[in-house]
Every structure is written in C-alpha cells, then in structure tokens.
Write a structure and sequence with these properties.
- The complex is a heterodimer of chains A (461) and B (336).
- Chain A is built from 20 helices and no strands.
- By secondary structure, chain A is an all-alpha fold.
- Chain A is globular.
- By secondary structure, chain B is mainly alpha-helical.
- Chain B is built from 13 helices and two strands; from the N terminus they run ααααβαβαααααααα.
- The longest helix of chain B is centred in the first third of the chain and has 38 residues.
- Chain B is globular, with a radius of gyration of 21 Å.
- Chain B starts with a helix and ends in an 11-residue tail after the last helix.
- The relative contact order of chain B is 0.18.
- The chains are: A mainly alpha (461), B mainly alpha (336).
Chain lengths: 461, 336
C-alpha cells in the first residue's frame, strides 16, 4: 500500500520536474511547477501521516525542516559562489557542541577540579600560536627561524600538555558514570542555535583564510579535513562533550510529554478531540518543534532570498560565473568568497544545533560523513543549485526518501527474491544488505541529476 | 648498548610502521596525482576505489583458500591481487565511460568532475558494503613475521626486540617495484611520454597528435592498479573495513598536495612525510628517553605530543601549512 503510493508520488515528482525536458516538450510554467512540487511533497508527508502515523509523519517533517536549513547553508556557498564545502558534518557537529555548552547543567565539582587548568592551557595555546606567527613574520627566512619556530611549537605543546593533562583527568574523574565533563552554562537551549552558528562561522573563517584563493579543490579537501578533526575532538575530548559516552537529557525548548499528560487542560482538549492523551502529547510536542523549525527556516529563507536579489547577490553570482572579469571590475574575489563561506557555515551550524536540540542528546559517534555531508550535497544538487526554494525542496525530498528508502528497499528485495527458497544464501544476503542500498540510491540520484538535469528540480532563475 | 636499545625501540614502533604506512599512502597518492595530472580533478572516489579493488582481491583470496591454493609463506592475497586489479580496472573504466566521459566532452569545470566523483564514491561505497558488508574482514594468511621480536632479542641479546611483519615487508617491496615500473613507464615508453606531455600542456599535446582518449584510459588503468595494490596492502597490514578507506582519503589527499598535485615524485615524498609525521607525533617517547638519559631524569609522563586519536589531525595540520606557505607542494606541482 504505502509502497504503491510512494511510487506514484515519485512518478508525479518526475513528471512535473524532469519529464517534459527529457521527452522534449516545453516545461511547465515555473510557478505552477514549483507550487505543484511543494504540493506533492506535502501530500507525501500527509500520506505517511494517514497510513503510518502522525507521529512518524511529524518526526519526518521536523528532520526535513532541519535538512532544508542545512541545504540552504550549503546552497549559499555552492549556489551563490561556487564554493565546494565537503565538511558540512563538522559545522553541524559544532552546532551540536554549542547545544551542550549552552544548555547542559554545569558540573560544579568538575569546574572546581579542572577548569583552571583547561583555561591556562587554552591561554598557552593562544600564546603559542601568536608567538609562532610573530617569529615567522619578524625573523628573516633562515635556518635559525625554522629552529626557532620548531622550538616554540614543541615548548608550547609540552607546556600545554603539562597543564591540560592533569586538568583533563581531574574533570573526567568527577562522577564519570553520569558526568565527567565540565557541563554547560545551563541556559535555554534556543540560545545555542545562534551560538552554534557563531562556532561554525569561526571554524569556517580559519579554513577559508587558508584555503580560499587557491584551487577550488583545495577548499574541498581542507573542509573534508576540518570536519574529520572536529568530529575527532568531540569524540575524544571527554571533558568537553563526554565523548562517545554521549551527553543526553539536554533541556528542551518545548514542553515534555509527561507534563502535558498530567496537565488538565491538555487532557481535556485531547478527550474533546477524541484522541488518546498519551499519543496526542507526543504529536503536540513534535508540532511545537515543527513550528520553531519552520520559523527559523522561513527567517533563513527570507534573508537568503533578500541577499540573493540584492546587489550583493548579483555580485556573488558575477564572481561565480567569471572570477577573472569580476576581479577586473574591482571586486575582491577572495574576501567575498570568505564572507559567503562563513555565512553559509553559520547557517549549517544553526541547523546542527537545532538537530541536537531535537534529539535531546549529543551523540558524537553518529556524525558520519555520508549522512551529514554527502546527503546534504545530494539535496542541494537535486533541489537546484543557486535557488533557495530548490534547496528547501531538495532537503524535503531527499530526507523523505532517505527515510522511506528502507521500507521501499526491503519491499523491493522481498519481491525480487520471492521466487527463491526461504534459506537461500543469496536471498538472505540480499535481504540483510538492503540498508546499504540507500547509499547507492543516493549516489545514483546525484549522478543522474548532475547528468540529465544539472539545474535541479527548481532551477536558478 | 643503551643507545642501541633506544634505536631499536624507535625502529620497531616508528621507523618500520611508518615506512610501511608511507608506502601505502604513497601508492594511494600516486593514483590521485595521476588522475589529477591527466583529468585535472581531485578524485574523491579514490578511497572507495581502493576498497573496491581490495574487496575483489579478498573475494578471490577466499576462493583460492577454499580450493587450497596457497603460496606459503606468502599470503594468498598476492596471488589474488592480479584478479582484483583486473576487476578494478574494469570497474573504473566503466565509471569513466558512463560518467566522466560526458563531462569531458562538455569541457565541464573541474568542480563538476569533483561532484560527479562524490556520486561515484557513494555508489562504490554502496556496492562494497552491499557485497562484502560493512564489517572487518580477515584475509591475511601465510607466515606472519619475517623477524619476531623475541627471535631478534635472542639473536642480538638486546633488551628491545625488533619485529618485522611479512605484510610490512611485502608492502615495501611491492611499493618499490610498482614505483620503478611506473617511472619506467612514464619516462621510457611512448604512451608514458605522451601522458606526461598531456599533463604538462593539453593543447600542445593534442596538436602534436596525442590521442586524448587513450591517455585518459591509461590514466584510469594506472589509477585503478595503484588503488587496488594500495588498498590490498593496507588491508593486509591493518585490516579491511570499508569505512577506513573513506577515512584514508584525507591523508592521501594531504600526501598528494604536500608533494605537489600532479607530480608523481611528490606523491611518494608526500606519502612518507605524512606517514612519518603522523606516527612520530603520536608516538609516546617515554621509554625511548628513558634509555638515553640517566635514571633520575626519566620522565613520568608518556612524552606524547598528540594522542593517537588525532592522527588525522596531523595530516591536516601539514596540509594547512603547505597550503599557507607553499601551495604548489614540495615538488611544485600544479596549483591555482
């Protein structure tokens, strides 16, 4: 049932967006096509709500919203300026870190035990970097300078470790089963969203400073690297994020189900609507999230559209389409690239913080490049690079099928292997590996769109 | 004696592993650099191509093992390697025919190639996981050690042992042979020379009648061969797990860029630079220092600059330094 409906919906998506171009007919007028694409998407989520359950549909919707925001961030970088960010995972993870640092309860014992040592080693790190830069700038290039730089770095590292090691151990020894980290500031988690954006923006600035202005590939490789390192840090620095032990139970910006079920007004409304209070409480919570996320999405979308249609946006596109001539016109290409790269990363960071908020926990082990970086890329390319609405639609479509591919895949495998014996080795293997089909499907979608419809579902105007 | 012990200790834990790891990285970086030199894009699918080649090799190894074919004391994987290479070449040429050729005809920007290679990476990754699964696979057999630490201790009477694994020996020997063959091919044969000409100046090469399709095909064949060898050697030395090959992408790119993208010599040098720094920075020098200084000076910490969890950070830092100060790499490959 669900598979048939989903299949029909896929078909409708294809017909509306790609088919006219493939068979050579004139495409539908833009507005009609765009509206019908979003309508099909809304219909799909409604179908899931009706057939599976509203809980599932809303959970899906929330992640679709977050994915759309991330895709918007990447679209700012790739669509506006042609910058290739392959480290989306890292920026999203920084958003997650912000959620912990802002909202988790501070662990007083840990602060007493090691905060000073961590602070001192942080200061030492800053001093080391500054000394290195100073020596590099003010000494003539010579063997002596190289030795001096080497000495500064080694001494700096030893000094940092001298303070950092004991402080780290002390913090991690504080009640390791449930704490063992500094904790956060205990502030409302909504504050973490902009802070996540700021953290991601800072990281992007460092990367952009080094890798922009060189070949486009270098930025891709540098971002790939920073993402790996950021995730390595949050996985292994237990004093900061508890590492793979996860920080769970982050406070919520919305009510808890249990409180709703115990408050009279909510139970009254639920019974009046003829719903089970327990079930409707979780639907209500998800709706609250959906409203919050929609507000952020609309805000980011509005700002992006304004930016894209402003003189600034025209300049960015001019730079993207021809760097040399834009440079000749007196535009500072590298500085504008840096600007747009930081802006896009901020949006990704915000989305990352929202994701951790929705999960209610930070699970560093869950940050996988295929899921957090390359999937977002498929969203942007499929949606339509350079078009904000396209990025939003791409976020919805790709996330929807990423989730629903599992039931579709296992149904497909069941059907394909129906003729084989129950214990046929090939059949068992195929059924067990349907999960990996998702990756392949996403890769194939990316390649097909890039080849046959490189401008995506909603092309740039 | 103490000095000798210290040296053996360092060889055992730094020198030998770094040489083996460096050879694997160098082979991987050579593949990246060849594709970069000819097709002018950074191939993000290279890590997964390595995984694909290694996977086919593993499947053949298992098949040979089940038939009782072996070349004891060497691992059976060496026997299966040619088959892995053949399949990998076939696979890579198929991706070129189906995907990259279209963009080449269109003269698409390198960035488009790069995104296409991300798509290929997805698909290859999916295929590998689909066929062999996401878990660790064991396929090493034959003798495990050339020299065992204990035998070495007995032989020399030193306190420290030096162990030398067969996989490490094979890695180094194979890498040397492959590199010699590659350089002979590039410098001595007609096809190799035309490839270097194409890489230096595409238009000029085309004018002088070099067939671009042939050059591109040979580049893919070389890349696939190198990828399979590198992937199999890495799998023999450590273990085969599809995900680790994705993670190898960063050190491999770092090696290629450090050496200078497009420069084969640079790729080799870069591989060793990355491998040595990664292992030296994450090695705990406590015992080493203890041999060299009087007992009372012995350090009570591990004397480790960076914990092993951050070994990828090392290649990244080197990459950043190179991008900042010498974006063309040590051997001045292409940049900008």
């Amino acid at each position: 049932m669900i598979v048939t409906l989903l299949g029909l919906a896929c078909f409708a998506l294809l017909v509306v967006s790609l088919a006219p171009r493939l068979v050579g007919l004139s495409p539908l007028p833009d507005r009609i096509r765009n509206v019908s694409l979003f309508a099909i998407m809304a219909l799909l989520i409604t179908i899931v709500g009706l057939i599976q359950s509203w809980n599932v549909a809303l959970a899906l919707l929330n992640l679709c919203l977050i994915s759309s925001i991330m895709a918007l961030g990447v679209n700012i970088q790739w669509g506006y300026a042609g910058l290739l960010n392959v480290g989306i995972m890292g920026f999203a993870a920084l958003g997650g870190v912000a959620a912990v640092l802002i909202s988790a309860d501070p662990v007083a014992d840990a602060w007493a035990a090691g905060a000073l040592g961590i602070f001192v080693s942080f200061i030492l790190a800053v001093v080391t970097v500054m000394a290195t830069v100073y020596a590099y700038r003010n000494m003539a290039p010579s063997m002596a300078r190289n030795l001096a730089l080497f000495a500064i770095i080694v001494i700096g590292l030893i000094a940092i470790r001298y303070f950092y090691g004991p402080a780290k151990d002390a913090i991690e020894d504080v009640n390791p089963a449930s704490e063992g980290y500094l904790g956060g500031l205990g502030l409302p988690i909504i504050l973490a969203w902009p802070v996540g954006g700021v953290l991601a923006g800072l990281a992007a600035w460092v990367i952009g400073k080094t890798a922009l202005g060189l070949r486009s590939d270098y930025l891709a490789i540098a971002t790939l690297g920073i993402a790996e390192i950021i995730v390595a840090i949050i996985k292994h620095e237990d004093w900061l994020t508890r590492g793979v032990k996860n920080v769970s139970g982050l406070p919520r910006p919305v009510p808890y189900e249990i409180d709703l079920q115990q408050s009279q007004w909510f139970v009254d409304i639920a019974t009046r609507l003829g719903q089970d209070p327990a079930l409707s409480s979780s639907v209500f919570v998800k709706l609250c999230y959906a409203v919050l996320f929609t507000v952020v999405l609309l805000a980011v979308l509005w700002l992006s559209e304004r930016a894209l249609n402003s003189p600034w946006g025209r300049m960015m596109r001019a730079i993207r389409d021809n760097e040399v001539s834009a440079n000749a016109m007196g535009k500072d290409v590298v500085a504008r690239h840096l600007q747009v790269f930081v802006l896009g990363s901020i949006v990704v960071g915000i989305a990352g913080a929202m994701l951790t908020t929705l999960d209610g926990q930070l699970t560093p082990g869950a940050y996988q490049p295929l899921r957090y970086t390359f999937l977002i890329w498929v969203m942007v390319i499929l949606g339509g690079s350079g078009n904000n609405w396209g990025a939003v639609l791409g976020g919805f479509v790709v996330w929807f099928f990423w989730i629903q591919a599992e039931p579709i895949g296992s149904w497909l495998m069941q059907t394909l292997t129906a003729g084989m014996a129950e214990d046929n080795a090939l059949r068992v293997h195929l059924l067990n590996s349907t999960a990996h089909m998702r990756l392949m499907t996403m890769g194939i979608i990316l390649l097909l769109v890039l080849r046959f419809s490189p401008r995506g579902l909603i092309p740039e105007k | 004696m103490e000095l000798l012990n210290a040296f053996i200790l360092l060889s055992n834990f730094v020198l030998v592993p770094a040489i083996a790891y460096g050879s694997q990285l160098a082979l991987g970086a050579l593949g990246v650099t060849v594709i970069y030199g000819i097709l002018r894009f950074s191939n993000f699918a290279h890590g997964d191509t390595m995984a694909f080649g290694a996977m086919v090799t593993i499947l053949f190894t298992w098949w040979f093992q089940s038939m009782g074919i072996s070349i004891h004391p060497l691992p059976t994987a060496l026997l299966a390697l040619p088959f892995g290479i053949l399949f990998c070449i076939g696979f890579v040429l198929a991706t070129d025919r189906v995907i990259y050729r279209f963009y080449r005809r269109q003269k698409a920007a390198p960035v488009i190639f790069l995104i296409a290679s991300m798509g290929v990476m997805f698909v290859t990754n999916g295929i590998v996981r689909f066929i062999i699964g996401p878990n660790d696979q064991q396929f090493a057999d034959g003798e495990r050690f050339i020299i065992k630490a204990r035998t070495f201790k007995k032989m020399t009477g030193l306190a420290e042992g030096l162990s030398f694994k067969v996989s490490q020996g094979i890695t180094v020997v194979t890498a040397i042979l492959v590199v010699i063959a590659l350089f002979w091919f590039l410098n001595r044969t007609r096809t190799g020379k035309s490839m270097r000409a194409y890489s230096d100046n595409e238009d000029l090469a085309l004018l002088s009648g070099i067939n671009p399709d042939k050059v591109v095909m040979v580049a893919w064949i070389i890349a696939a061969t190198l990828a399979t060898i590198a992937g199999t050697l890495y799998g023999l030395d450590k273990s085969f797990k599809p995900f680790t090959y994705l993670q190898l992408l960063l050190p491999i790119f770092a090696a290629a860029i450090v050496g200078g993208l497009g420069s084969p010599i640079g790729a080799i040098a870069g591989g060793f630079v990355i491998a040595f720094s990664e292992i030296m920075v994450t090695y705990a020098y406590k015992k080493f220092i203890a041999y060299l200084v009087p007992e009372s000076w012995e350090p009570d910490t591990l004397v480790q600059l960076l914990s092993t969890d951050y070994k990828f950070a090392v290649s990244f830092m080197i990459l950043l330094l190179v991008l900042l100060f010498r974006p063309t790499g040590i051997f001045a490959g292409k940049s900008v």
